[in-house]
Amino acid sequence: MAEVVEGKKLSSYAEVGATQYVLERGLDTDVMVLNMGPQHPATHGVLRVELITDGEIVVKATPYIGYLHRCFEKHAESLEYQMVIPYTDRMDYLSAMNNEWVYCMAVEKLLKIEVPRRIEFMRVIVAELNRIASHIIAIGTYGLDIGAFTPFLHTFHDREHIMNLLEWLCGARMLYNYIWVGGVSHDFPPKFKERVAEFLKYYKPRVDEMNKLLTENELFVQRTRGIGVLPADVAINYGCSGPMLRGSGVKWDLRRNVPYSVYPELEFDVVVPKGDISVIGDCLSRHLVRCYEIYESIKIIEQCLDKMPDEPGFDPHKAVPKRIKPQAGEAIARGENPRGELAYYIISDGKGVKPYRVKARAPSFSNLSVLPELAKGALISDVVAIVGSIDIVLGDVDR
Amino acid sequence: MLPKINLLLASSGVAAAVPSVELNQWSNQLSELGIPGLLLISAIPLVFIAVYALYVGVYGERKVSAFIQDRIGPNETGKWGLLQTIADILKLIQKEDVVPAAADKTLYVLGPIIIFVGAFAAYAVLPFGPAFIGADLNVGVFYATSIVSIEAVGILMAGWGSNNKWSLFGAVRSVAQIVSYEIPAGLAILCGVMMAGTLSMHGITLAQSGLQADGTNNGLGILNFFIFQSPVAWLAFLIYFIASLAECNRAPFDIPEAESELVSGYFTEYGGMKFAMIFLAEYASMFMVSVIISTLFLGGWNSPLPNLGPLRLNEWTNGPVWGVFWIVIKGFFFIFVQMWVRWTLPRFRVDQLMYLCWKVLTPFAMVALVITAFWEMYVRNPM
């Protein structure tokens, strides 16, 4: 509590409008500590935010994490390289494909193996499908945070199609273990490409519909516009990435800026808010970035379906090494996860089949660290809107 | 004993020009039976409310929301899931009646009771048809709006007594909201009251029945309803509808119980039957405001069908039994609209809610009131 009293100093406290108003008129009251979480419907899992509130105004917000810590990095040290892949699925469980892909890229770099071109396209397709699934959950649950229940169920309805596709592909609906070091577990089944194209055709009007229902709703815009504005420099200083960074107007996307796989061959835009309906950097901007990235992902998948080489009798295990025992050395791979920049740093001591050290740089962790900046001076309802717009996955924060 | 009030004597203006009509026969006859009759009078709406809350309220809301959200809704328990709400109630009754250790026990127990009583006391003046009304008070509308206000006290008790910060936030928000929204709601009600010239619920309904000074009915049906009788009645109607959503804590004004922000607001700590009582009170309030809005602006128990030449539709569809049908149908329609709004719109923020109330609804309600007053003076009843 000592820290609280210091935090009530005028200089830091009076930066925001509502707070200033309260102070100037002597309306400030005693502060109250309010625990939001770890069991709270709006914290998207087991995040605990300690709010110090003056009435409805938040003086200070401190996130406490670790409720879902599963010692991923320590586990990885005692497992063989390919055994770590299912663990990476469980970090950001809403975009498991992206996680395992980045991990596999790091191991492939360590082993210096080339991946067949068809495999690269398959990986892009499944990762982008997974990105759409992840974004529509983010958008749906964001509506839920703002109080609109219905868009959430409609987005889940659409996500079901993607999960069915991926289940057909590899047997799992959320935690796939599909991308292997040097390959993938199964080749695309017959007619899979047609079904994906069919889904995209069905889904495009549904995105428009979802935007009409939620994004263009006046109440929704009023709740999110100008709330939790994150300036670009602050976003960079805190290491924010993904829609958080792009929502602040920074045109940074690893798929474009540090290209990997076949992304250089594909045409897509890096989405940044135009600032026409939203204030750059606010909750609405971040939401809009996610909405428009869905269109970009659809574009990417369509191009991949066209460009992907058809090889009858293709063996997806062709380049999979029988025994992964890299030379001593280290490798780092970065990839654009739906939530931001995901990186795996692997050290091999060259002595065995287990990594000496695996470090994961999780996007949600850095994105969440900026919460105290955003929540200062906001109302309690705004804190819910801000936490929702950051789109954290606690499995990714805590690892 | 409930006195037989000749509502037409107590009123003035339009209603005074309307000839006396025998109303309220059933409830008057019941009240002559003494205590059992009086109990029956109060039991009839209670049974109605129970059936309505189970089937239109809970089951209907679940089915409507399921339809809006592309789901199926309850479908396992009984035919079409019709027994689902019964099963839920049985479950709630069986639950242990827990009082949190840190709660203020008196307030915690009293809170739901006051909310429940406040919501149901208003049913005394709701006209369930020309022949049945619990008590046709000459200040009926005023009584209904004021007795519902004690819900705010119950909510504050529940929120404070729970000794939970989220409950407290919910309760404080709720009380601020209910007290604020009574002002536009009250002004909008006054528009209807002015047009009828009486505060009695039966009197207001009768003023929309098309009865003329010579005792005949003009048979225009829906055109007699107040919403079509003045250029601003629709505005008052709209303001009252919006304000009534806020008074019932319904979305988009459900910030006191905002699920995603305040967990469940003032009833976070409640379980079992206490929770069911708070829930029932919400559905009771929904029907109550729906009946008030139907009575004030949409003719209450009057048939909306007009006489079309030889087709005496208006005559055929009026009467004590038809009256019950019309008022219940109109009430259910507004309940459906409330559900529709709830499952479509996001939630307001607390400051936006107050802005809407004080800076939008209240000024417009004032304007509607003044225009209605002049309209009554110079157009509908020129002196």
What does this structure look like?
Chain A: One of its GO terms (molecular function) is NADH dehydrogenase (quinone) (non-electrogenic) activity. Chain A: It catalyses: a quinone + NADH + 5 H(+)(in) = a quinol + NAD(+) + 4 H(+)(out). With 399 residues, chain A is mostly helical. Chain A has 2 domains: 61 residues, no CATH class; 331 residues, Cytochrome-c3 Hydrogenase, chain B, CATH 1.10.645. Chain A has 18 helices and 8 strands. In chain A, the strands form 3 sheets. In chain A, strands 1-2-3 form a 3-stranded antiparallel β-sheet. Chain A has a 3-stranded antiparallel β-sheet with strand order 6-7-8. The longest helix of chain A has 30 residues. Chain A is globular. The N terminus of chain A is likely disordered. With 383 residues, chain B is mainly alpha-helical. Chain B contains 15 helices and no strands. The radius of gyration of chain B is 21 Å and the shape is globular. Chain B starts with 6 loop residues before the first helix and ends with a helix. In chain B, 50% of the residues are buried. The N terminus of chain B is likely disordered. At the A-B interface, β1, α7, α8, α10 and α17 of A face α8, α11 and α15 of B.
What's this model, at a glance?
Chain A is mainly α. Chain A folds into 2 domains: 3-63, no CATH class; 68-398, Cytochrome-c3 Hydrogenase, chain B (Orthogonal Bundle). In chain A, 49% of the residues lie in helices and 12% in strands.
